[in-house]
Design a protein that fits this description.
The complex is a heterodimer of chains A (about 290) and B (about 240). Chain A has helices at about 1-20, 30-35, 65-80, 95-100, 160-170, 185-195, 205-215, 240-255, 260-270, 280-285; strands at about 40-45, 45-50, 50-55, 60, 85-90, 105-110, 125, 130-140, 155, 180-185, 200-205, 220-225, 230-235, 235. Chain A has 2 domains: about 25-130 and about 235-285, Periplasmic binding protein-like II (D-Maltodextrin-Binding Protein, domain 2, 3-Layer(aba) Sandwich); about 130-230, D-Maltodextrin-Binding Protein, domain 2. Chain A is elongated, with a radius of gyration of 22 Å. Helix content of chain A is about 40%, strand content about 20%. In chain A, strands 8, 9, 10, 11, 12 and 13 form a 6-stranded mixed beta sheet that branches. In chain A, a hairpin with a 5-residue loop joins β3 (about 50-55) and β4. Chain B has helices at about 15-50, 55-70, 70-85, 90-95, 100-130, 130-140, 145-160, 160-175, 185-195, 200-230, 235-240. With about 240 residues, chain B is mostly helical. The chains are: A alpha/beta (about 290), B mainly alpha (about 240). The interface between A and B is medium-sized, with 32 and 29 residues.
Chain lengths: ~290, ~240
């Protein structure tokens, strides 16, 4: 009888421990806010295919969105609120920081890449995707790699790391006389390429592949060149919230370790015919931090 | 609000030189556009009020087209569509050999757009001056050209200095639309700083202050100009109306 009693006590105790890994009162910052409001708001993009965009039915979908959904599943467990609602907010790039700062969005799930100067303002999760800057060009342009762009005209999207990369490339002596034109968005850049205004459009390789897939002159465009610089996309969160960052990173590590990330990858990049790059598979191997 | 202020980025390199470059581009673009738009706008206004029917039609068409199409659409048309509709060799020149293609096309677009607005402002001046002075000048044997040159335009310009000042201020602000075709002026450079550092509030505050300073400078210039004109021969706007 005593043994049964002890067993009951032990079971209740450990069950209590298990079901409530941390008490509601312990929650701070973003986690507390999410628990109190019962909603997580994700900042997404309108047309960052295939990472974060509105599909034909006006639903927010994409690779980054699926990754964030997995994070939300983890948040549900940690905050013990299974009924947590996800709200999507289409956010323009220049609005993402104020909206994050004033608490409108809790995570930004798009194609924002990590950089040290950005880390003075925001926090980043561990990386979930690696891209390299490559070249979109016309198949008949004769451009095969970076060397072929010497003395030509290169287009870049404004305010991206691709722009930084190209601008420092053309400052090197062999690229003297190479012109760089910046475009406010990808649509303008692709249009400029199609109308022969530029010889190559440079930005993240997956973005280029997706742009090529959507272009009218799909068969006349090619993505060429070796990746010049590597960049990592990560979920953007508020800066001074280590507890929340830990939850997000834990969710990502479990996603990588369990191999589920490969299913998500196939779902979004299979149709584009983009096999997983070596760099990416290493990110998932290294990112699957042990418990 | 969980925002980390770093005002120091505004004096850090390369961001400081980005802002300086943006300021230089805005001033050059707007200044040159004004120099093209003012004579062109005057010409259109004269055509619209002049004695030749064909001139009046041309002037009216010009104003309707350039004033009614949104500036940002015009920017895209000039930059992307115009080189495709002209003969191939000229189109190739525009796309590939033109120095600073986005700046040049942005300048043309801004000038033609502003000229249509200036034309309307100056026309209102010419019409306020009335048919009295015009008929008197013609009756005294002055040709149409001389009537406009020595009688009507000097009166009209004095009358429309206040709205002209507004147009002068507007041209600096309208120049920011050129960022749509890749001209890196103040607004575009602020976006750039925001995108690289995520310090958007600081960057856009800097842009706001720069625009305010430019406007202040323009107001002072316009004030000086008004004083200079109203002292010329004692003919101020008030005298002109009477």
């Amino acid at each position: 009888m005593r043994i049964i009693g002890l067993l009951i006590v032990v079971t209740c105790f450990s069950a209590g421990q298990f079901a409530r890994p941390c008490l509601a009162e312990d929650l701070t910052g973003t986690l507390k806010k999410i628990k109190d409001t019962g909603t997580v708001t994700l900042g997404t993009r309108e047309s960052s295919k295939p990472f974060s965009y509105l599909d034909q039915d006006n639903q927010t979908v994409g690779f980054s969105v699926d990754v964030c959904r997995k994070v939300v599943d983890k948040i549900k467990i940690v905050t013990a609120s299974p009924g947590l609602k996800i709200k999507y907010l289409t956010t323009a790039p220049s609005a993402r920081i104020p909206l994050l700062a004033n608490g409108t969005i809790d995570m930004e799930c798009s194609t924002t890449s990590m950089s040290l100067s950005r880390m003075r303002q925001v926090g980043f999760s561990s990386p979930f995707f690696v891209v390299g800057a490559r070249i979109l060009t016309k198949t008949d342009s004769g451009v095969k790699d970076w060397e072929d762009l010497k003395g030509k005209v290169i287009g870049v999207p404004q305010g991206t790391n691709g722009e930084k990369t190209v601008k420092s490339l053309v400052e090197t002596p062999p690229f003297k006389g190479t012109e760089v034109i910046t475009f406010p968005d990808h649509a303008a850049g692709v249009l400029a390429l199609e109308t022969d205004r530029i010889d190559g459009y440079v930005t993240d390789d997956v973005v280029l592949l997706s742009l090529r897939d959507d272009a009218r002159s799909k068969n006349q465009l090619a993505v060429v060149g070796r990746p010049l610089t590597f960049e990592t996309y990560a979920i953007v969160i508020r800066r001074d919230d280590p507890d929340f960052k830990l939850v997000v990173d834990t969710a990502l590590a479990e996603l990588y370790r369990s191999g589920e990330i490969h299913d998500i990858y196939k779902k979004w990049f299979g149709p584009l015919d983009v096999p997983m790059s070596e760099a990416n598979s290493y990110v998932y191997k290294i990112g699957g931090i042990v418990q | 609000m969980n925002y980390h202020w770093h005002w120091s980025i505004l004096v850090e390199q390369p961001y400081l030189s980005w802002l300086a470059h943006g300021l230089a581009v805005t001033l050059t673009l707007s200044g040159l556009a004004w120099l093209i738009a003012l004579p062109l706008g005057t010409l259109i206004a004269v055509l619209r009020t002049g004695p030749w029917k064909i001139g009046r039609v041309i002037g009216a068409c010009y104003v309707r087209v350039f004033r009614n199409v949104p500036l940002i659409v015009q920017m895209f048309l000039w930059f992307f569509v115009f080189p495709e509709v002209v003969p191939k060799t000229f189109g190739f020149f525009l796309k590939r050999q033109l120095p600073f293609p986005e700046f040049t096309m942005g300048l043309l677009c801004l000038s033609f757009y502003s000229a249509s607005r200036l034309a309307e402002t100056i026309r209102s001046g010419l019409e306020t001056a009335g048919s009295g002075p015009k008929n008197a000048a013609l009756a005294s044997g002055l040709s149409y050209v001389k009537t406009y040159r020595f009688v009507l335009l000097p009166m009209a310009f004095r009358l429309v200095i206040p709205p002209l000042t507004s147009e002068f201020l507007a041209i600096f602000k309208n120049s920011s639309v050129a960022l749509a075709i890749g001209v890196l002026e103040i607004t575009a450079e602020s976006h750039q700083i925001e995108s690289f550092t995520f310090q958007g509030f600081e960057a856009f505050t800097a842009a706001t202050v720069l625009y305010a300073l430019i406007s202040l400078m323009c107001l002072i210039l316009a004030g000086l100009f008004k004083r200079y004109l109203s002292n010329a021969g004692g003919l101020g706007a008030e005298v002109a109306i009477k």
